[in-house]
Amino acid sequence: MTADDASTAPPDGSTPPVRVRGIYTTAITRLLREREFEVVQASEPIRDRFDAAFPSEPAAVAVETTRDRQGVAVSGEPDAVDAVASELEDLAIDTFRWEAVVPKGAVFDGEVIEVDGGSGAVVNLGDDRRGYLRYEDVDGYVDSGNRYRVQVREPAPPWDDDRPLVAPNLEVGGGLVTLSRARSGVSAAVSGERGTELVGMTDLLSVDVPDGWGVRWQRAARDADLEAMGTALERASERARAIEDDLDGVDESEDPRRLAAPEATAWLWFGRESRFALDDLRRAVETTIPGHHRTKAADRAASAAVDFAEAVVDPADDGDDREFPFAAVSRQFGPQRGDRIALGHGKPDGRLITLGRGEVTDWDSAGNVTLERSMRGGGTYDALEVPKEDGDVAVTKLREGRWWYPTTYRDSSGETKGTYVNVCTPVELFPDCARYVDLYVDVIRRPDGSVEIVDRDELEEAVADGLVSEPLAEKARGVANAVERALSK
Hints:
The chain is of the alpha+beta class. It has 11 helices and 25 strands. The protein folds into 3 domains: 1-100 and 263-324, no CATH class; 107-169, CATH 2.40.50.140; 340-488, FomD barrel-like fold (Beta Barrel), CATH 2.40.380.10. The protein has a 7-stranded mixed barrel with strand order 17-18-19-20-21-22-24. It has a 6-stranded mixed β-sheet with strand order 2-1-3-4-16-5. A 5-stranded mixed barrel has the order 6-7-8-10-9. α1 (25-34) crosses α6 (272-283). The protein is globular.
């Protein structure tokens, strides 16, 4: 049996059941229900908002907000992941999708290549893939060269510096029930009488759980009936057997490699327009202030403030024609004059490059921020072909929601060395960084006043490689042309 044989996706080609969690839950639930997906294991607030009954049934795919709140991970059966991710990637022009090379649930033979005095070690998973193994998950001392058979617990998005979290024991499930080779017997993550009931009802299910796998009912099983419990346990058992079949007779390899991938993971990054599209979806269900998701993505502490503001807003005043309250959000959470923020330069292939940090030297309530960075000597400025020298200053003018931003380079005497205008997805000014995705094509103005659009070929290559959609590329070309005309006047 392969992992696909244990799929929870309906065999008739209908949409798969989906579990959604995180700050985008209401909006994504609305979107998926519109597209006739079945949302399962919904939280109590979601049931209240939709005034609907959501089944407590196994999910084929889980949608979870990333730790940095920039987007979501979609994990589960490969066909189900593709179906859900395909709906989400069409959300707005600045939504990006990537497939994980180290998906959730994948099993690898790995080798420790780096240990430190912290909490874990770096593990080579083969083919330039890396994982992070916590010491607390391993029996005994961990040292370089040690080999482990590990499974991915938490994949990491491509724009994050974190490595996927791996552990040296096998698990399957999630949602209602989890089977684990590190446990024995039957237990429940639910306290009180209901937890005791779940453990006792397991004997009534007549499901053949594979030998050596312990059963643990999760909190989502509190509202599950006997039929749903039986289905969840049976499917988890099938998946456990599928992994055992994949690993049967496989010795630990001399070279780290992937052995099994019962699940797929897709990453969705949401740009500013995507977050406002999510606002519109949420507003159809619940009072939603302008910039709801933009604000919550900025800072974890913002969630409570947003929830409070929406609780006291008159629903009659709730509409998508009001502007995002940049001044209020920025004053409360940043950035403000005197703060230091980074330029979070995302790339269409998912990578995040930090272009240094600078001081906010100017700010206004309309969403304009000026950032100054001191430059070190060495090399030249891209495309401008003028030398970088000690004492140079880069002055970057950012505006919330704008599709471009200029950086002017000046020497120690204040003379201009040129201006570089980056064309990108709409800028978001978060407390610690300005975030966007670079669209390759840029505009430069040299010290002699000549203006030129550069890197057109890189944009076309990105379109050909499927990294940038044609509508987004057309937008980038239009922005570059408009900036060129403005700089040439």
